[in-house]
UniProtKB/TrEMBL annotation:
Pfam families: Aminotran_5. InterPro entries: Aminotrans_V_dom, PyrdxlP-dep_Trfase, PyrdxlP-dep_Trfase_major, PyrdxlP-dep_Trfase_small. It comes from the Bacteria. It comes from Oceanibaculum indicum P24. This is Isopenicillin N-epimerase. Keywords: Pyridoxal phosphate.
Protein backbone atom coordinates (compact mmCIF):
# COMPACT_ATOMS: atom_id res chain seq x y z
CA UNK A 1 0.00 0.00 0.00
CA UNK A 2 2.57 2.53 1.15
CA UNK A 3 5.01 1.71 -1.66
CA UNK A 4 2.37 2.66 -4.26
CA UNK A 5 2.30 6.32 -3.19
CA UNK A 6 4.85 9.03 -4.03
CA UNK A 7 5.87 9.15 -7.69
CA UNK A 8 3.27 6.47 -8.55
CA UNK A 9 0.35 8.79 -7.70
CA UNK A 10 1.79 12.12 -8.81
CA UNK A 11 -0.11 11.94 -12.12
CA UNK A 12 -3.32 12.50 -10.14
CA UNK A 13 -2.15 16.07 -9.57
CA UNK A 14 -1.42 18.71 -12.22
CA UNK A 15 1.90 19.69 -10.63
CA UNK A 16 4.67 20.45 -13.12
CA UNK A 17 7.25 17.70 -13.52
CA UNK A 18 10.15 20.15 -13.48
CA UNK A 19 9.52 21.51 -9.98
CA UNK A 20 10.10 20.06 -6.52
CA UNK A 21 6.91 20.91 -4.67
CA UNK A 22 7.82 20.55 -0.99
CA UNK A 23 5.30 23.12 0.24
CA UNK A 24 1.91 21.43 0.20
CA UNK A 25 1.31 23.05 3.59
CA UNK A 26 0.87 26.61 2.36
CA UNK A 27 -2.03 26.23 -0.07
CA UNK A 28 -2.48 22.49 -0.72
CA UNK A 29 -2.74 21.06 -4.24
CA UNK A 30 -5.92 19.57 -5.69
CA UNK A 31 -6.12 16.31 -7.65
CA UNK A 32 -7.40 16.51 -11.23
CA UNK A 33 -10.41 14.29 -10.43
CA UNK A 34 -11.54 16.67 -7.69
CA UNK A 35 -11.09 19.68 -9.97
CA UNK A 36 -13.20 17.87 -12.59
CA UNK A 37 -15.96 17.49 -10.00
CA UNK A 38 -15.70 21.18 -9.15
CA UNK A 39 -16.00 22.08 -12.85
CA UNK A 40 -19.01 19.79 -13.19
CA UNK A 41 -20.77 21.84 -10.51
CA UNK A 42 -19.76 25.09 -12.20
CA UNK A 43 -21.10 23.89 -15.56
CA UNK A 44 -24.36 22.85 -13.93
CA UNK A 45 -24.65 26.30 -12.35
CA UNK A 46 -24.17 28.05 -15.68
CA UNK A 47 -26.80 25.90 -17.47
CA UNK A 48 -29.43 27.81 -15.51
CA UNK A 49 -28.07 29.98 -12.68
CA UNK A 50 -31.50 30.70 -11.22
CA UNK A 51 -32.51 27.07 -11.11
CA UNK A 52 -29.13 26.20 -9.64
CA UNK A 53 -29.16 28.79 -6.85
CA UNK A 54 -32.79 28.23 -5.89
CA UNK A 55 -33.37 24.52 -6.37
CA UNK A 56 -30.09 22.66 -6.84
CA UNK A 57 -27.78 24.43 -4.40
CA UNK A 58 -29.70 24.12 -1.09
CA UNK A 59 -29.98 20.30 -1.07
CA UNK A 60 -26.51 19.88 -2.63
CA UNK A 61 -24.98 22.07 0.07
CA UNK A 62 -26.85 20.15 2.78
CA UNK A 63 -25.39 16.94 1.33
CA UNK A 64 -21.87 18.41 1.24
CA UNK A 65 -22.23 19.52 4.84
CA UNK A 66 -23.42 16.05 5.83
CA UNK A 67 -20.41 14.46 4.03
CA UNK A 68 -17.98 16.78 5.79
CA UNK A 69 -19.73 16.35 9.15
CA UNK A 70 -19.36 12.56 8.91
CA UNK A 71 -15.68 13.00 8.16
CA UNK A 72 -15.22 15.30 11.18
CA UNK A 73 -17.49 13.14 13.41
CA UNK A 74 -19.61 16.25 13.93
CA UNK A 75 -23.29 17.09 13.69
CA UNK A 76 -24.03 18.80 10.34
CA UNK A 77 -26.05 21.44 12.19
CA UNK A 78 -22.92 22.53 14.05
CA UNK A 79 -20.95 23.20 10.85
CA UNK A 80 -20.87 26.25 8.64
CA UNK A 81 -18.96 26.47 5.38
CA UNK A 82 -16.44 29.32 5.09
CA UNK A 83 -13.85 30.07 2.40
CA UNK A 84 -10.80 29.59 4.56
CA UNK A 85 -9.59 29.36 8.14
CA UNK A 86 -8.97 33.12 8.16
CA UNK A 87 -12.69 33.54 7.42
CA UNK A 88 -13.60 31.16 10.25
CA UNK A 89 -11.47 33.09 12.72
CA UNK A 90 -12.92 36.39 11.51
CA UNK A 91 -16.50 35.16 11.92
CA UNK A 92 -15.85 34.23 15.56
CA UNK A 93 -13.80 37.27 16.54
CA UNK A 94 -16.15 39.75 14.89
CA UNK A 95 -19.22 38.08 16.38
CA UNK A 96 -18.06 37.96 19.98
CA UNK A 97 -18.37 41.13 22.05
CA UNK A 98 -15.22 42.29 23.83
CA UNK A 99 -14.91 45.03 26.44
CA UNK A 100 -12.09 47.41 27.32
CA UNK A 101 -9.31 45.44 29.04
CA UNK A 102 -10.48 41.97 27.96
CA UNK A 103 -7.54 39.81 26.91
CA UNK A 104 -7.32 37.57 23.85
CA UNK A 105 -4.49 35.09 24.28
CA UNK A 106 -2.53 33.75 21.32
CA UNK A 107 0.85 32.04 21.17
CA UNK A 108 4.05 33.24 19.54
CA UNK A 109 3.71 30.32 17.08
CA UNK A 110 0.28 31.60 15.94
CA UNK A 111 -0.52 32.55 12.36
CA UNK A 112 0.05 36.19 11.40
CA UNK A 113 -3.34 36.72 9.71
CA UNK A 114 -5.04 35.53 12.90
CA UNK A 115 -3.01 37.94 15.03
CA UNK A 116 -3.87 40.75 12.62
CA UNK A 117 -7.56 39.95 13.09
CA UNK A 118 -7.06 40.22 16.84
CA UNK A 119 -5.36 43.61 16.31
CA UNK A 120 -8.45 44.71 14.38
CA UNK A 121 -10.61 43.70 17.36
CA UNK A 122 -8.23 45.58 19.67
CA UNK A 123 -8.82 48.77 17.70
CA UNK A 124 -12.58 48.31 17.71
CA UNK A 125 -13.18 47.22 21.28
CA UNK A 126 -10.28 48.11 23.55
CA UNK A 127 -9.60 44.41 24.16
CA UNK A 128 -5.88 43.59 24.16
CA UNK A 129 -3.86 40.82 22.59
CA UNK A 130 -1.59 38.85 24.88
CA UNK A 131 1.11 36.66 23.39
CA UNK A 132 2.31 33.54 25.20
CA UNK A 133 5.95 33.12 24.21
CA UNK A 134 6.40 29.44 23.41
CA UNK A 135 10.08 28.48 23.07
CA UNK A 136 11.43 26.82 19.94
CA UNK A 137 12.87 24.31 19.23
CA UNK A 138 10.78 22.10 21.49
CA UNK A 139 11.64 18.85 23.25
CA UNK A 140 8.06 18.04 24.26
CA UNK A 141 4.59 19.48 24.86
CA UNK A 142 5.26 20.69 28.42
CA UNK A 143 6.78 24.02 27.38
CA UNK A 144 3.68 24.86 25.31
CA UNK A 145 1.28 24.15 28.16
CA UNK A 146 3.48 26.07 30.62
CA UNK A 147 3.66 29.13 28.36
CA UNK A 148 -0.10 29.24 27.80
CA UNK A 149 -0.98 28.54 31.44
CA UNK A 150 1.31 31.27 32.78
CA UNK A 151 -0.39 33.85 30.55
CA UNK A 152 -3.96 33.14 31.62
CA UNK A 153 -5.64 35.67 33.88
CA UNK A 154 -9.08 36.73 35.06
CA UNK A 155 -9.17 39.05 32.06
CA UNK A 156 -8.58 36.31 29.47
CA UNK A 157 -11.85 36.07 27.51
CA UNK A 158 -10.68 34.06 24.53
CA UNK A 159 -7.74 31.75 23.91
CA UNK A 160 -6.79 31.04 20.30
CA UNK A 161 -4.88 27.78 19.94
CA UNK A 162 -3.43 26.31 16.77
CA UNK A 163 -4.02 22.62 16.22
CA UNK A 164 -0.87 22.55 14.08
CA UNK A 165 1.26 25.68 14.00
CA UNK A 166 2.32 27.22 10.70
CA UNK A 167 5.91 28.49 11.17
CA UNK A 168 6.98 25.67 13.51
CA UNK A 169 4.80 22.78 12.22
CA UNK A 170 4.01 21.68 15.77
CA UNK A 171 0.98 19.63 16.78
CA UNK A 172 -0.21 21.34 19.95
CA UNK A 173 -1.36 19.34 22.99
CA UNK A 174 -4.96 20.53 22.60
CA UNK A 175 -6.53 18.28 25.23
CA UNK A 176 -4.19 19.52 27.98
CA UNK A 177 -4.40 23.11 26.78
CA UNK A 178 -8.18 23.19 26.59
CA UNK A 179 -8.42 21.57 30.02
CA UNK A 180 -6.49 24.46 31.58
CA UNK A 181 -7.91 27.26 29.41
CA UNK A 182 -11.63 26.71 29.21
CA UNK A 183 -14.02 28.02 31.82
CA UNK A 184 -17.47 29.56 32.01
CA UNK A 185 -16.12 33.00 31.13
CA UNK A 186 -13.21 31.97 28.94
CA UNK A 187 -13.74 30.60 25.45
CA UNK A 188 -11.38 28.61 23.23
CA UNK A 189 -11.08 28.96 19.46
CA UNK A 190 -8.97 26.35 17.69
CA UNK A 191 -7.29 27.30 14.44
CA UNK A 192 -7.14 23.91 12.73
CA UNK A 193 -6.05 25.23 9.34
CA UNK A 194 -3.71 22.27 8.75
CA UNK A 195 -5.60 19.51 10.56
CA UNK A 196 -8.28 18.09 8.21
CA UNK A 197 -6.70 15.28 6.22
CA UNK A 198 -3.47 15.34 8.27
CA UNK A 199 -4.99 14.24 11.60
CA UNK A 200 -7.83 11.84 12.34
CA UNK A 201 -10.35 14.37 13.64
CA UNK A 202 -13.21 14.08 16.08
CA UNK A 203 -13.97 17.78 16.29
CA UNK A 204 -16.63 17.78 19.06
CA UNK A 205 -14.43 15.58 21.27
CA UNK A 206 -11.68 18.21 21.21
CA UNK A 207 -13.76 20.26 23.63
CA UNK A 208 -13.27 23.72 22.12
CA UNK A 209 -16.03 26.32 21.74
CA UNK A 210 -15.05 27.02 18.13
CA UNK A 211 -12.97 25.07 15.61
CA UNK A 212 -12.12 26.21 12.11
CA UNK A 213 -10.28 24.10 9.55
CA UNK A 214 -9.22 24.17 5.92
CA UNK A 215 -10.18 21.39 3.55
CA UNK A 216 -8.00 22.91 0.83
CA UNK A 217 -4.70 22.07 2.53
CA UNK A 218 -4.24 18.42 3.56
CA UNK A 219 -7.63 17.20 2.35
CA UNK A 220 -6.69 18.54 -1.10
CA UNK A 221 -10.09 20.17 -1.72
CA UNK A 222 -10.44 22.99 -4.25
CA UNK A 223 -9.26 26.30 -2.80
CA UNK A 224 -11.95 28.09 -0.83
CA UNK A 225 -13.26 25.02 1.00
CA UNK A 226 -13.15 25.39 4.78
CA UNK A 227 -15.48 25.12 7.75
CA UNK A 228 -16.33 26.62 11.10
CA UNK A 229 -17.64 24.29 13.80
CA UNK A 230 -19.34 25.93 16.77
CA UNK A 231 -20.45 24.18 19.97
CA UNK A 232 -24.27 24.15 20.18
CA UNK A 233 -24.39 26.38 23.27
CA UNK A 234 -22.33 29.09 21.52
CA UNK A 235 -24.08 29.16 18.15
CA UNK A 236 -26.64 31.87 18.92
CA UNK A 237 -23.94 34.54 19.12
CA UNK A 238 -21.88 33.53 16.04
CA UNK A 239 -22.67 34.90 12.58
CA UNK A 240 -20.90 34.94 9.23
CA UNK A 241 -18.86 38.08 8.59
CA UNK A 242 -21.20 38.84 5.68
CA UNK A 243 -24.81 39.01 6.88
CA UNK A 244 -27.40 38.09 4.26
CA UNK A 245 -31.00 36.83 3.86
CA UNK A 246 -30.80 33.96 6.41
CA UNK A 247 -29.90 36.22 9.36
CA UNK A 248 -31.54 34.84 12.52
CA UNK A 249 -32.60 31.60 10.87
CA UNK A 250 -30.00 29.49 12.65
CA UNK A 251 -26.24 28.99 12.65
CA UNK A 252 -25.76 26.54 9.75
CA UNK A 253 -28.40 28.31 7.61
CA UNK A 254 -26.72 31.71 8.03
CA UNK A 255 -23.42 30.28 6.79
CA UNK A 256 -25.13 28.60 3.81
CA UNK A 257 -25.90 31.87 2.07
CA UNK A 258 -23.70 34.95 2.35
CA UNK A 259 -24.60 36.40 -1.03
CA UNK A 260 -24.13 35.15 -4.58
CA UNK A 261 -20.95 33.13 -4.91
CA UNK A 262 -19.43 30.07 -6.54
CA UNK A 263 -20.03 27.24 -4.03
CA UNK A 264 -18.37 24.58 -6.20
CA UNK A 265 -15.38 24.13 -3.85
CA UNK A 266 -17.74 23.27 -0.97
CA UNK A 267 -19.90 21.06 -3.18
CA UNK A 268 -16.82 19.01 -4.14
CA UNK A 269 -15.95 18.08 -0.55
CA UNK A 270 -17.54 14.62 -0.79
CA UNK A 271 -15.52 13.86 -3.93
CA UNK A 272 -12.41 15.12 -2.17
CA UNK A 273 -12.88 12.77 0.77
CA UNK A 274 -13.66 9.93 -1.66
CA UNK A 275 -10.54 10.62 -3.73
CA UNK A 276 -8.28 9.17 -1.03
CA UNK A 277 -9.90 5.75 -1.48
CA UNK A 278 -8.53 5.69 -5.04
CA UNK A 279 -4.94 5.98 -3.73
CA UNK A 280 -5.10 3.50 -0.86
CA UNK A 281 -7.31 5.18 1.74
CA UNK A 282 -6.67 8.11 4.05
CA UNK A 283 -5.14 6.09 6.94
CA UNK A 284 -2.49 4.64 4.58
CA UNK A 285 -1.88 8.07 3.01
CA UNK A 286 -1.47 9.63 6.44
CA UNK A 287 1.00 6.94 7.49
CA UNK A 288 2.95 7.45 4.27
CA UNK A 289 3.11 11.24 4.66
CA UNK A 290 4.11 11.13 8.34
CA UNK A 291 6.72 8.47 7.66
CA UNK A 292 8.12 10.45 4.75
CA UNK A 293 8.22 13.70 6.76
CA UNK A 294 10.19 11.93 9.49
CA UNK A 295 12.55 10.16 7.11
CA UNK A 296 13.23 13.39 5.20
CA UNK A 297 13.68 15.48 8.37
CA UNK A 298 16.15 12.99 9.84
CA UNK A 299 18.09 12.80 6.58
CA UNK A 300 18.29 16.61 6.28
CA UNK A 301 19.23 17.26 9.90
CA UNK A 302 21.93 14.63 9.79
CA UNK A 303 23.41 15.94 6.49
CA UNK A 304 23.33 19.55 7.69
CA UNK A 305 24.47 18.79 11.26
CA UNK A 306 21.45 20.59 12.70
CA UNK A 307 18.35 19.65 14.67
CA UNK A 308 14.68 19.01 13.91
CA UNK A 309 12.41 21.61 15.54
CA UNK A 310 10.11 19.20 17.38
CA UNK A 311 10.12 15.57 18.54
CA UNK A 312 8.28 13.04 16.36
CA UNK A 313 5.34 12.98 18.81
CA UNK A 314 4.53 16.62 17.91
CA UNK A 315 4.90 16.20 14.15
CA UNK A 316 2.49 15.25 11.37
CA UNK A 317 3.01 15.66 7.62
CA UNK A 318 5.36 18.61 8.10
CA UNK A 319 8.66 19.14 9.88
CA UNK A 320 11.00 22.05 10.52
CA UNK A 321 14.74 21.56 10.23
CA UNK A 322 17.26 24.18 11.24
CA UNK A 323 19.47 25.42 8.44
CA UNK A 324 23.25 25.40 8.99
CA UNK A 325 24.75 28.28 11.01
CA UNK A 326 26.04 30.18 7.99
CA UNK A 327 22.39 30.89 6.97
CA UNK A 328 21.72 32.82 10.20
CA UNK A 329 22.36 36.27 8.76
CA UNK A 330 20.94 35.64 5.29
CA UNK A 331 17.39 36.97 4.83
CA UNK A 332 14.87 34.15 4.39
CA UNK A 333 13.69 35.67 1.12
CA UNK A 334 17.22 35.48 -0.30
CA UNK A 335 17.47 31.78 0.57
CA UNK A 336 14.02 31.13 -0.91
CA UNK A 337 14.93 32.94 -4.10
CA UNK A 338 18.04 30.84 -4.67
CA UNK A 339 16.28 27.55 -3.92
CA UNK A 340 13.58 28.48 -6.41
CA UNK A 341 15.60 30.18 -9.14
CA UNK A 342 18.53 27.77 -9.23
CA UNK A 343 16.90 24.51 -8.18
CA UNK A 344 13.14 24.94 -8.74
CA UNK A 345 12.50 23.90 -5.16
CA UNK A 346 9.34 25.32 -3.57
CA UNK A 347 9.89 25.25 0.20
CA UNK A 348 9.27 27.88 2.92
CA UNK A 349 12.19 29.30 4.91
CA UNK A 350 11.92 31.67 7.84
CA UNK A 351 13.74 32.87 10.90
CA UNK A 352 12.25 31.98 14.25
CA UNK A 353 13.87 33.35 17.39
CA UNK A 354 16.71 34.55 15.14
CA UNK A 355 17.48 31.05 13.83
CA UNK A 356 16.91 30.01 10.20
CA UNK A 357 14.47 27.11 9.64
CA UNK A 358 13.12 25.33 6.62
CA UNK A 359 9.64 23.73 6.78
CA UNK A 360 9.15 20.64 4.66
CA UNK A 361 5.79 19.17 3.71
CA UNK A 362 5.27 15.51 2.82
CA UNK A 363 2.21 15.02 0.59
CA UNK A 364 1.05 11.76 -1.03
CA UNK A 365 2.85 12.65 -4.29
CA UNK A 366 6.22 13.44 -2.66
CA UNK A 367 9.09 10.96 -2.36
CA UNK A 368 12.43 10.90 -0.55
CA UNK A 369 14.61 11.71 -3.58
CA UNK A 370 13.05 15.18 -3.74
CA UNK A 371 14.36 16.04 -0.26
CA UNK A 372 17.80 14.79 -1.31
CA UNK A 373 17.82 17.54 -3.94
CA UNK A 374 16.97 20.05 -1.18
CA UNK A 375 19.73 18.60 1.01
CA UNK A 376 22.31 19.05 -1.76
CA UNK A 377 21.05 22.51 -2.74
CA UNK A 378 21.51 23.75 0.84
CA UNK A 379 24.96 22.17 1.08
CA UNK A 380 25.93 23.85 -2.22
CA UNK A 381 24.25 27.15 -1.39
CA UNK A 382 26.03 30.07 -3.04
CA UNK A 383 23.65 33.03 -2.75
CA UNK A 384 24.07 33.80 -6.42
CA UNK A 385 20.35 33.97 -7.18
CA UNK A 386 20.01 36.89 -4.78
CA UNK A 387 23.08 38.55 -6.32
CA UNK A 388 21.11 38.80 -9.54
CA UNK A 389 18.22 40.67 -7.86
C1 LIG B 1 -2.15 27.96 11.38
C2 LIG B 1 -2.78 28.63 10.20
N1 LIG B 1 -3.89 29.35 10.39
C3 LIG B 1 -4.52 29.96 9.38
C4 LIG B 1 -4.03 29.87 8.09
C5 LIG B 1 -4.75 30.60 7.01
O1 LIG B 1 -5.27 29.75 6.05
P1 LIG B 1 -6.14 30.41 4.90
O2 LIG B 1 -5.22 31.31 4.13
O3 LIG B 1 -6.63 29.27 4.09
O4 LIG B 1 -7.20 31.18 5.57
C6 LIG B 1 -2.87 29.15 7.84
C7 LIG B 1 -2.33 29.05 6.48
O5 LIG B 1 -1.28 28.53 6.23
C8 LIG B 1 -2.23 28.51 8.92
O6 LIG B 1 -1.11 27.81 8.74
Amino acid sequence: MVASLGQAVRHHWGLRDDILFLNHGSYGATPKAVLAEQRRWQALMEENPVNFMRRVLPPALAQARADLARFLRADPGDLGFVENATGGVNAVLRSLGFAQGDEILVTSHGYNAVKQTVHFIEEKSGAVIRIAEVPFPLDGPGAITAAVTSNLSDRTRLVILDHITSPTATIQPLKELIAVCKSEKRLVLVDGAHAPGMLDLDVPAIGADFYTGNCHKWLCAPKGCAFLWVAPDRQASIHPTTISHPFRTGFAEEFSWTGTRDASAWLSVGATIGFFDTIGGLPAVRAYCQGLATEAAEMLSSAWGTRIGTPASLRGNMATIRLPERFRDIPAQTILDELWERHRIEVPVHHFGGDPWVRISAAPYNHIQEYEVLRNAVLAYSGTASDRN
